């Protein structure tokens, strides 16, 4: 079962991926996580990536594809995978198809999570994550604030989750990522899920219905 999530930053791709991981036991391939891991290593490439991401720009296609290819070919992904945050543009989508064709793998389901831009900004700017367990909350939609305790950890905010950077990311998304929707629609594997202010489980139930 190979699944791809599409949608603007803050639409809930990561949250829905975690639901599927729990249900089906297949790993999530998050380009954000792959890139942040490289940044944490403080390598020369990691420092370059840090500057690019902090400005709300997208990373070079070749670098991202290399990281994704390495993950897909790992033993962890033998039973399938969930792609979150990649591809981000039409060129990446076509390059991904070429990569998967060489190893006889196909994307079976593409879920596009469609959320209004005003809500997306609130979701991103208010997002806080536990630095220990990875739990995600939002300062706008919960009682938790940055610095609050979460078990053995505390809630922290990503440096790039500020209004200026988020607005720029949404602009770049509209210009570069939206054309991918038509690309996968033509392949008859695209499923559009409308997101709102309701609980994440509403989207999860819709996705499970399609997969079943």
Unreliable runs, pLDDT <50, ≥5 residues?
none
| Individual helix count | 9
Largest sheet data = 5 strands, parallel
Gyration radius from CA atoms, angstroms = 17 Å
Structural category is alpha/beta
Mean residue pLDDT: 89
Strands across the major sheet, in which order? 2-3-1-4-9
How many strands in all?
A: 9
Strand content: 15-25%
Q: What percentage of residues falls in helices of 4 or more residues?
A: 40-55%
Helix-strand string: EHEHHHEHEHEEEEHHEH
Shape: globular
Briefly say what this structure is:
This protein is of the alpha/beta class and 212 residues long.
Structural summary, described in words:
It is globular, with a radius of gyration of 17 Å. The chain has helices spanning about 15-25, 30-40, 45-55, 60-70, 90-100, 115-125, 165-175, 180-185, 200-210, and strands spanning about 1-5, 30, 80-85, 110-115, 125-130, 135-140, 150, 155, 190-195. The chain is built from nine helices and nine strands. A five-stranded parallel beta sheet has the order 2-3-1-4-9, sandwiched between helices. Strands 6-5-8-7 form a four-stranded antiparallel beta sheet.
